[in-house]
DNA sequence: CTGAAAGCGCTTACAG
DNA sequence: CTGAAAGCGCTTACAG
């Protein structure tokens, strides 16, 4: 049984067996137990679970095996207390679209799973007076490992500033770069707007309306700006009176959809800055007895469930929310690892999905 | 400055001032600091933050004020480490409807906000081999204060058993009582099904179809059973060949909606066990060139966003998800407080919302 | 590459 | 009603 390496003194398999036999009570092993069984100090076990490079390779392998066999799980609370940093990732959102939020969550969890980190959700109201204070307390008290921010909280400069002061890693998901590359996932909504415009222009539309989100939402201004750029490529533009201001809700789409019908001459197509408003426009048409896309083509943005539930099914620019969540989480961990090179993507491009809500203008 | 009570020895306001002056570095106060300033032991501070009754009232008031003034926040990690219980509530879900999940989350957070507890989300796949093991590790490693389970994981007896063995408080949200009262929030889907049946019967429908969810989903069997009970009150029933088996997805509704059109004689109304399938049926009708509810009335279940996005807007039985989440969280904390009397509701009744997808049969 | 000592900020168990 | 001591399970900072 000659070993090819030194350090044959410790038989880790036997140690595991010893533990199993002496632990009839089913007590969970602690770092102390592992250290004792392996004949090393706690510090060495600590180095191993923290992936410190300075541990003898043979020792490391053996102890990793031992850890697996006896089912040792480091206590996140103890680690947190000692290191002043928890194993929790915070997701701060103020986005009202459940489909977006849940998909982002799933994307983040795709990365967190099996890492020992958990996701703590924190919806908030950015307009509340205590917003900043609440967020600060949440981050500080929980000693979050890092935070992921979705639009529109991601656009809040004061919150980003606060995070930096607290020394908390964060990733901002937004339609344009608002921060250093290592802290951004950019969704490039402008390109999605462009794609929507090109699609309508190619179908032959010329009298085209827009329903925007609030001006304070960067995603909306980007989507609309992209749309206008795309139209301009074809020598087209949106007349000022065809530019209607919504707020990303279905209800605003429903109300503005009715307004759209009163426009003279009527537009033959409309681009809504998100699917919820596009769905509202479709419903307004149904209420008025129209059968879209007969007299009006409608393009949305996001491609969440709503897009395929409505009739006709929406042509829309897709926001790949789950992927965005995944990228954000990957970047968060790279950021913190510091020296590892950043290789993950940090940008997504919306892709236009053509369905039944758009067709050539009928005349 | 005579005080009406003994214990005038400690001037807490002065103590707070002293802290503010001596703490120019901005260090967060710890329990030790508070104890020192108040001239008591840590144990007394501990009693106060844990609402222990055995503290002198005057002392308690003064120290609570002191705590507020110097901004002391107990460290959840340290508390967790010492007490072997974290300040985290887990939400274990395997429900694919984002609108449900997000609303439940919001309901739970309505209760958790300002308590210091945080919500950790844990979507899972109940069919996975490692499901039970994963859940166990999550609960154990994080030392969760408690867990809230939504359908269908809430229906898993092995998981409930596991939770009991781990000594972890839990609340099951389900359509019927599956556990002791203190561990259940019952949604009574059966009543919703009944209401749907009565509505259709009153409109004069007699040839009525059903689209069910999977038989393994209790909510579906309850909804359908309630529906049949409601019909029976009016001497009606669903013919076996009018009973179609879906799986709660939009896609299954779309496929079965097409099948519905081939039935001879055709039904004049259909009850789908959730909105997603009802939306699928509506779309199948549109695809076939029908204009519901002309030839077919459709009733759904849930009243999530989808219900009002589709055309015609769905008549449906409402699942008050946010309220359900709130009740579950309230119950979770009562359960743990032990001796407090349980007064919160533990049951919700779906309410029928009448919209445009149902009308009298046309003949 | 490895370890001994001290400490993170609380609670527990006990004593009075 | 209150407190002194020990300990929860780790990491840090230092030393070698």
UniProtKB/TrEMBL annotation, chains A, B:
Keywords for the protein's UniProt record, in alphabetical order: DNA-binding, Transcription, Transcription regulation
GO MF annotation terms: DNA binding
Entry keyword annotation includes Manganese: no
Alphabetized Pfam families for the sequence: LacI (PF00356), Peripla_BP_3 (PF13377)
Domain HTH lacI-type span(s) in chain numbering: 29-83
Top-level taxon: Bacteria
PROSITE patterns documented for this protein: HTH_LACI_1, HTH_LACI_2
Protein name per Swiss-Prot or TrEMBL: LacI family DNA-binding transcriptional regulator
Species, as recorded: Congregibacter brevis
């Amino acid at each position: 049984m000659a070993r090819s390496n030194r350090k044959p003194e410790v038989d880790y398999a036997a140690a595991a067996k010893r533990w199993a036999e002496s632990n009839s009570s089913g007590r969970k092993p602690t770092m102390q137990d592992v250290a004792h069984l392996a004949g090393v100090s706690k510090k060495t076990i600590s180095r191993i679970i923290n992936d410190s490079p300075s541990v003898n390779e043979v020792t490391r392998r053996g102890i990793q095996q031992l850890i697996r066999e006896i089912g040792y799980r480091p206590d996140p609370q103890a680690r947190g207390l000692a290191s002043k940093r928890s194993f929790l990732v915070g997701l701060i959102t103020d986005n009202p679209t459940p489909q977006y939020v849940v998909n982002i969550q799933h994307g983040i969890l795709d990365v967190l799973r099996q890492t020992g980190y958990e996701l703590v959700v924190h919806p908030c109201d950015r307009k509340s007076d205590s917003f900043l204070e609440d967020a600060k307390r949440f981050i500080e008290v929980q000693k979050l490992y890092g935070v992921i921010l979705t639009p529109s909280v991601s656009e809040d400069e004061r919150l980003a500033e606060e995070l930096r002061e607290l020394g908390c890693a964060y990733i901002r998901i937004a339609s344009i770069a608002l921060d250093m590359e290592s802290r951004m996932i950019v969704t490039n909504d402008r390109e999605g707007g462009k794609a929507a415009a090109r699609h309508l222009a190619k179908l032959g539309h010329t009298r085209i309306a827009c329903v925007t989100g609030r001006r304070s939402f960067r995603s909306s201004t980007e989507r609309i700006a992209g749309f206008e750029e795309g139209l301009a490529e074809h020598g087209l533009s949106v007349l000022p009176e065809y530019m209607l201001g919504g707020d990303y809700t279905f209800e605003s789409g429903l109300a503005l959809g009715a307004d759209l019908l009163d426009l003279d001459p009527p537009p033959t197509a409309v681009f809504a800055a998100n699917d919820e408003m596009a769905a509202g426009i479709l419903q307004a048409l149904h209420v008025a007895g129209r059968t879209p896309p007969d007299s009006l083509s409608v393009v949305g943005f996001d491609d969440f469930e709503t897009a395929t539930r409505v009739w006709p099914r929406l042509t829309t620019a897709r926001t790949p929310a789950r992927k965005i969540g995944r990228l954000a989480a990957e970047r968060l961990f790279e950021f913190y690892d510091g020296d590892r090179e950043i290789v993950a993507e940090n940008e997504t491009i919306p892709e236009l999905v053509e369905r039944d809500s758009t067709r050539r203008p009928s005349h």
